[in-house]
Amino acid sequence: MPRIKMGFEDQPRKTDRKLVDRLVDELKADRESGQPFIYEQTFSTGKLRVLVIWDDWQDLPLEQRTNVILSALEQSDGKDYRAKVALASGLTVPEGVASGMLPYQIITALRKEDQVTLEQCWTAMLAEGATQLFGPKILQLRFPTEESAEACRQRLIRRLPNSDEIWLVSREITAQDFGPASESVAIGPG
After folding, report:
1. 43 and 59: one domain?
2. pLDDT, tens only, 46-93
3. Terminal-residue alpha carbon distance, the chain
4. How far apart are CA 106 and CA 125, in angstroms?
5. Residue 27 forms part of a structural domain
6. What Cα–Cα distance (Å) separates residue 143 from each residue in 5, 37, 102, 117?
7. What is the domain extent for residue 124?
8. Under DSSP, is residue 154 helix (H, G, I), strand (E, B) or coil?
9. At what angle do helices 146-159 and 118-128 cross, to 10 degrees?
């Protein structure tokens, strides 16, 4: 395959102005919970990776999501900060789950004798940023790390006193849990 080097051209990009404004508000608000989830990772080079998990991306193409994120970062933090961003991605919660980026989930283990109702649990989960994009009667509250899931669990307990045992952190097993492919065992004759 040929190696093709391309220069960077900062051309006008199509953005959804309303989403840019909403994301700017979110970046400035520094809320403790709820969507969008904004994850910023700094590499050893000083460059940033920004991941915005937000169900409002649902009807927007990936390129436009990136443009919204970059525009919002520039508006909220300035051109110098925006220039540090090497990778900006916008995913819905289901897309984040499918890509393996959100392996931790908070689930409810509600029993009849508990002092809170299912409706109260759903309301609290929605306030924390749970998605309904998996189906109309399916809520999922997902996170990239155990620490972020546990922090959310603690907020849920504060929201609903006497609900400590209801909230559980679960982790999906992914291919990365099994190590590199070279360590796999061949099955079959041979």
Report:
1. yes
2. 999 999 999 999 999 999 999 999 999 999 999 999 999 999 999 999
3. 35
4. 9
5. yes
6. 36, 9, 5, 24
7. 98-175
8. helix
9. 130
- Considering the domain architecture, whether residues 105 and 156 belong to the same structural domain is answered as yes
From residue 50, give the alpha-carbon distance in Å to each of 27, 101, 105, 167, 181.
12, 13, 21, 29, 29
In a 3-state reduction of DSSP, which class is residue 58?
coil
For the chain, what is the mean pLDDT?
A: 88
Domain boundary residue, one of 74, 91, 108? 91
Residue 140 confidence (pLDDT) above 60: yes
Measured torsion, CA atoms of residues 62, 68, 71, 77, in degrees rounded to the nearest 10:
-110
- What is the number of structural domains in the chain? 2
Burial status of residue 135 (CB atoms within 10 A of its CB: 0-12, 13-18, 19 or more): exposed
| Alpha carbons 51 and 87: distance in angstroms, whole number | 8
CATH code, domain with 124: 3.30.70
DSSP alpha helices (H): ranges in the chain? 17-29, 62-77, 79-83, 93-98, 118-128, 146-159
Which residue would you say has higher pLDDT here, 128 or 4?
128
Whether residue 53 lies inside any domain: the answer is: yes
